[in-house]
Amino acid sequence: MDYDASKHQKGLYLFKGKHFSENVDDEYDNYDYFMGADLDYNNPEVVKEAINWGLWYKDITHLDGFRCDAIKHIDSSFYEHWITTMRQHSKKELFSVGEYWGDIDHLCHYLKSIHFCMSLFDVPLHYHFYDASHSNGYYDMRELFNNTLVQRYDKYAVTFVDNHDTQPGQSLTSFIEDWFKPQAYACILLRQEGYPCIFYGDYYGIPHDHISSKKELLDKMMKLRRQYVEGIRHDYIDDPDVIGWTYETGLAVILTNSKGGTKRMFVDKQYKRMTDGKHTIDIVDGYGEFICDAASLNLYVVCK
To answer: Is 99 noted as a catalytic residue in this protein?
Structure first.
């Protein structure tokens, strides 16, 4: 608990006979306690009640998965047991994702400790987007995917650009600059790896903070994802400023956080021309010299 009502005193109180869990994050040496009234998952009755509650809630809502909050503060052995029980009872996959705010080593360690029973949000990738959008063009774009969860364990990575914790005014505020949102969303929506997650505040806007809706852009990217993001991809993440990739299905993606430029990329020999609506690129023997505008994202599809 964090409050003694009998003495009207705030503090961190550990009840007699209790001890902190060991299978939690090592921040502050042991980060079992987080806020409010902390449940004791070392107590078999607590674990049993949490399982009973989970089964009851799942049955009355008919849900298809779980988002598990603040998992770094909860004994990891509990979640493995809890999720396994939910799946056995429902006889469904019950896709589950956990929120673990930590670096890549902590995320990988956690996945191994729970035997990969759930996915995790790719927090390191979010901070790479943040750094790229706040670096005044000095971020090395070749590092964008390095040491991220989608690079290490793509099948267990839920990629995101921003969320309710990172938006302005929150305790973990680290909002991606508006001008870089198209580039960031291209990196999660127009690549096969990971499970992309769109932020409600980006799709519909956040009027309170004068943040505009990006619905038109995101709808376009989701349509491109359905039509083109499959099959053979060619990556050109080889320049500190301008990076890109192509799909032989007929899509070319090129982006920068700095000055614009061009990049020679292979698509497929069957195509003759591709356009992003502003620039038309000739394709010769499968290759095109694709143009990227400054601080921008350019998306090319085959000319009809």
So the answer is: yes
